C-alpha cells in the first residue's frame, strides 16, 4: 500500500473524499442510465437501434465538453478552483434529482429528460476536471505527488468497483433509488471540498482568456511526449471502448440482469485496482513509454476476447485485463502531465487533456452506438480491439519521443 502519510494534509484528504464520492456517484448513475435507456428503447426498437440510443447519451455529454472544456481550462487558471468545484458539484446534484423523477414519466418523455440531463452534466464536466487537476498539485508537496496520484487511482478504482455493484443491487428497487443514492454521495462531495482549507488562488493577470486557451494548446502541441500520451488515450478509447454497450451485452448476449451489468462495469476496476496497488508499491521509473504502448496492445487483445465471449465469468475476466492495462496507461499519462507541466500551465493543459479524454469516453460511447447499429455489438467491439492494436503499433512511429521516454522528470528539474 502507498503511504497514508499523504493524508496528513487535511486539504488533500477532503479533496480525496470529494473525488471518490463523485466517482462513486457517477458510476452508480451510469449503470442506472444505461439500463433504463436500453430497457425503454428495447420496448419498441431492435438491439442495434437500442444500442444507438445508448450512444446518444454519450454524445449529449460530450457536446458541452467540446464547446466549453478549453474555456473551463482558462477559468481554472483565472478563477478560484475550489469554488468552481463547489458550483459544478451543486449542478450535478440538481441533475441527479431530475433523473430521480424520470422513471415516473412515459418512455419517450423519460428519454428526453435523460438526454437533457446528460447535456447539463456535460456542462458541469467541462469545468470541473481542469479545476480539480490544477488544484490537486497545490495541496501536497512535490515530493509526495506520486503517492497522492497512487491514492487518487486507488480511490477511483475502489469507487468504480463498489459503485456499479451497489447500483446493480439498488436498481432492483428501481432507478430512482440509484439516483437518490448518487445525490447523497454528491452532497458529501460538496461539503468535503467546501470545507477544505485550500491555498489562496494565484490569479493569472494581464492575459485574456483566448490567449490562455491558445497558450495551453500550443504547449501541448509543442511537447511531443505530452501530445503523444494524451492522443493515444483519445484514439484507443474512442474506438476501443465498450462501456456504452455493456447493457446490450448484459441483456441480449450474456442474458443477465442489472446485477450482472453492475458486475461487468465493476470488472475493469478490479483489474485496475490490482495494478494501482502494484504501481503504488513499485512505481514505474524506467522505460515508461514502452510500458504505455505495451499496455495498449494488451488492452486491444483483451477487448477482442470480450467481443467473442458468451459467458459472464469469462467476460468479467477479460474486462478486468482491460482495466489493468488501462491503469498502466492512465498512471503514466497523469505522471507525465503532473510532473512535466509548469504550475502556471496546469489548468490549461489539464483542460486540453480532459477534452481528449472526454472525446475518448463520451464521444467514444456515441461511436460505439453508431458502430453497433451497423456492425452489431459484437462487430463493434471486435473492430475496437483491432484498432487498439493498430494504434499501439502506429504510435511507435508517429511519436518516437513517447516510445523512447525512459524516466519522468519534474518540469523544474529539466
Question: How would you explain this protein's 3D organization?
Answer:
The chain is mainly alpha-helical and 414 residues long. It contains 14 helices and no strands. It has helices at 10-42, 47-78, 81-101, 107-136, 145-170, 175-194, 209-222, 224-240, 246-253, 258-281, 288-308, 312-340, 346-398, 400-403. The longest helix has 53 residues, at 346-398. The protein starts with 9 loop residues before the first helix and ends in an 11-residue tail after the last helix.
Which features characterize this protein?
414 residues; mainly alpha; 14 helices; globular
Helix-strand layout with pairing:
Blueprint: H1 10-42, H2 47-78, H3 81-101, H4 107-136, H5 145-170, H6 175-194, H7 209-222, H8 224-240, H9 246-253, H10 258-281, H11 288-308, H12 312-340, H13 346-398, H14 400-403
Helix pairs in contact: 1-2, 1-4, 1-5, 1-6, 2-4, 2-7, 2-13, 3-4, 3-6, 4-13, 5-10, 5-12, 7-13, 8-12, 8-13, 9-10, 10-12, 11-12, 11-13
**Unreliable stretches, pLDDT < 50, 5 or more residues?**
none
Arithmetic mean pLDDT: 84
Structural class: mainly alpha
What does the largest sheet look like?
A: none
Number of helices: 14
Portion of residues in beta strands equals under 5%
* Overall 3D shape: globular
**SSE order in H/E notation?**
HHHHHHHHHHHHHH
